[in-house]
Design brief:
The protein is about 75% helix and about 0% strand. With about 80 residues, it is mostly helical. The termini are far apart.
Length: about 80
C-alpha cells in the first residue's frame, strides 16, 4: 500500500491545525477520530517514521519529527 488510509490522513490533518486552548485538541481527537488521545499519540508517533506519511504531508511530518527530536534531546 503506497498511500495512507483515511484515519492516518485524519491524524495528520489534526496536527496541521492550530488549537486555541487546553483540551480543545484532545476533544477534537475524541470527536473526529473516535479514539482516546493516548492511542492517537501512539499512532501519530508511528506515522512519523512511515515514509508514506512523509510523502503525504512532508511539512507537517518534518515539523513533528523536529519537535520529537528536541524533546528527546531535552531528556
Amino acid at each position: 500500500m503506497d498511500t495512507l488510509d483515511g484515519r492516518e490522513q485524519a491524524i495528520l490533518a489534526v496536527e496541521r491545525q492550530g488549537w486555541a486552548g487546553p483540551g480543545a485538541k484532545e476533544r477534537a481527537i475524541r470527536e473526529r477520530l473516535g479514539i482516546a488521545p493516548v492511542r492517537y499519540y501512539q499512532l501519530l508517533n508511528a506515522l512519523l517514521d512511515d515514509p508514506r506519511a512523509l510523502a503525504h504531508d512532508p511539512v507537517t511530518v518534518n515539523r513533528l519529527r523536529r519537535v520529537r527530536e528536541a524533546r528527546r534531546t531535552e531528556r
